[in-house]
Write a structure and sequence with these properties.
It is built from 8 helices and 10 strands. By secondary structure, it is α/β, with parallel strands linked by helices.
Length: 286
């Protein structure tokens, strides 16, 4: 299967007080198919958000390369839509105005009516059809995050990047927005990478789960292929006989194997063997 995203020998380091280098992420290698949904999990501080920000072009790459659709990235761009944990909306603009800001920049050749239709469509799909002209201060945290999701999809990016987008929400709102995200993702057939610390969220949303080892010099420890058919029903996924086993494997990695991994010191399976997209990833576009 052809690759859409190729991350090769990715490394991020910062100058250390002793004059050396503090390495956050090292030897991060991953290939992602078009339309695949990949989730990265790991402990806080392991560098999972750092690699996502390098993919977004918001953090400079120390070594390595990232290629999307055959083009090496050299900074941020509209080909990548980003949803952060906090949507960071401009408080003096309505939901509609927050979304159309980017749309006007990306679709500057479209008519005013066409741009309006794009914004109204995505705000309606995320459930804000009756609230699109309200200001952020009038919206709940979940509604503000819906604006953030609409803003990212409205740019029609080649890749969607999500940095713990539901981490600040209560369980019920999180489940609702996961369903909204899956609906949009299936409609757009977009390639996605999400960072999360939630094992259940990773299994429910993903085609593959990338497990990062603890830092310093964090890297990919293991990659799990998620077998559940799409479209997914939460209840059916949770009741699938494979679910408890997969969940246990991820938790065991986080509690045991992620800590033990030292470069060259522990016999953890080499992720390079499983870093390419498995044939079953075709289900990502189902």
């Amino acid at each position: 299967m052809s690759q859409y995203v190729e991350i090769s020998q990715l490394m991020k380091s910062y100058p250390a007080p002793d004059g050396g280098q503090s390495v956050i992420v090292k030897d991060f290698n991953l290939k992602i198919a078009k339309g695949e949904f990949v989730t990265v999990i790991g402990h806080s501080g392991c560098g999972k958000s750092t690699q996502l920000m390098m993919l977004a072009g918001l953090t400079e790459i120390t070594e390595g390369a990232i290629v999307i659709a055959g083009k090496e990235i050299a900074g941020p761009g509209p080909d990548r839509g980003i949803v952060f944990q906090s949507p960071s909306l401009l408080p003096w603009l309505t939901a509609f105005e927050n979304v159309i800001l980017g749309v006007e920049q990306v679709f500057f050749t479209a008519t005013k009516e066409e741009r309006r239709q794009i914004v109204e469509y995505y705000l309606t799909v995320v459930g804000l059809g009756d609230a699109m002209h309200k200001y952020p201060g009038e919206l709940s945290q979940g509604m503000r995050q819906r604006v953030g999701i609409a803003r990212a999809f409205a740019l029609k990016p080649k890749m969607l990047l999500l940095d713990e987008p539901f981490g600040m929400l209560d369980s019920l709102t999180r489940y609702e927005l996961q369903a909204v995200l899956l609906q949009l993702w299936r409609n757009e057939r977009i390639t996605a990478m999400m960072v999360t610390h939630d094992v259940d969220e990773a299994l429910y949303l993903s085609d593959r789960v990338v497990c990062m080892t603890d830092g310093p010099e964090a890297t990919i420890g293991e990659i799990m292929t998620v077998p559940f058919a799409r479209p997914r029903d939460r209840k059916a996924v949770m009741e699938d006989p494979a679910y408890p086993r997969l969940r246990s494997e991820l938790i065991t990695f986080l509690e045991v194997r992620a800590h033990r991994h030292k470069h060259g010191a522990e016999a953890i399976p080499n992720p390079a063997a499983s870093a390419t997209v498995p044939e079953s990833a075709a289900a990502a576009t189902a």
